[in-house]
User: What shape does this take?
Amino acid sequence: MFEKVLVANRGEIAVRIIRACKELNIRTVAVYSEADANSMHVQLADEAICIGRAPASDSYLRIDRIISAAEITDVDAIHPGYGFLSENAHFADVCESCNIRFIGPSSRAMNALEDKAVSRALAKKAGVAAPPGSDGVVESEQEAVNVAKRIGYPVMIKAVAGGGGRGMRAAHNDVSLVKGYHTARSEADKAFGNSGVYIEKYIENPHHIEFQILADQKGKIIHLGERDCSVQRRNQKVVEETPSPLIENRFKKLREKMGKAAIKIAEVANYTNAGTVEFIVDNHGNFYFLEVNKRIQVEHPITEEVCGIDLVRAQILIAMGEPLRYSQSDIVFKGHAIECRINAEDPFDDFRPSPGRIEMYYQPGGRGVRVDTHAYAGYTIPPSYDSMIGKLITYGKDRREAMDKMSRALSEYMLTGVKTTISFQQAILQDPNFRRGVYSTNFVEQLLSGARRELIEEKA
Assistant: This one.
């Protein structure tokens, strides 16, 4: 059993990890930037150490300072959460070399999956289809044009080290391809320190469906079902749910096929701990591998609700060397869960971030309602980080009940002082197509177009 764990993150995920540690009687150490001195995770942890100024490059991305904090406080392990250094193989390697357990996959497994272009080759080795595209990193705009002509427009330009929709551009012709190629490279370099991009066929109006996996150090791997993350804005997830309406209503046999594919990819990569294998699915039920997220996901709570398994607790136990105590046949999916991401943004001003002081804060409750957040009345949302305030999760015996609870919970969520996406989430929950489970990744664009946008703004 670990005696002490350092949480190398901030915000709601840091709070979530601290809670899991407390339930396992593990002491915690929080690291924080100067901007986060009054953050909730600092207050909840047993110890806290300031590691630098507000910019992430001066604090949460400083491996040397995090390791120093870990050594000073004599921790057994580090949990990286999501974002920041969570998928940094070098950070995992440094932890291992300092005899500090990294709560996540090994640096070897992360290296095998770190480059998305390389991951495509790994998926092919596992016998799982990926969208047609380049064989690796595209080194020039001329090579990009040649690849696009070979596989046919439209195409998607993607950062090999990307995430969160950054370093991604769609192109429908040579002109937009050349422009998108340079823009994506520049954006990827600033966001990830790696300007490499690859190109793949753009599947129009796809469904974004991912599978949660758990893998212990004995080679046992299981999946915990799918999450439908198709409600996105600029490739960033807005609403997630499980089970997927697409699979439930049209392609039930896909769950077993995709689950087996996710496990096979993890096996080929020698993966351990928690991870997510992401796919896109077209309207004919064909699925293609996208990437492996080598960490806990923002949307993990909905899987916890329908499976009854604490994923962060499982991460910690696996890192301690504990074997999985359940097999695939033991996993039973009950009910339906939905998550809405509540961000400090103005949805009617191109989702412009709205940092500032929260004046009044009241979060919803009741049976089947869960809120994962670090916010409170008087808390100041800093401008230096992601604008997420928290995650609202509802659970019901079926999709209708989960949606009704979410609509009710959103109407109860009261927060003043900053603009939020709460009203926009309400519009999504009331949309007839969403209610019927008929949507794809272009859903938000349609919702924000023309007369429908005016109606949403009027209601807000």
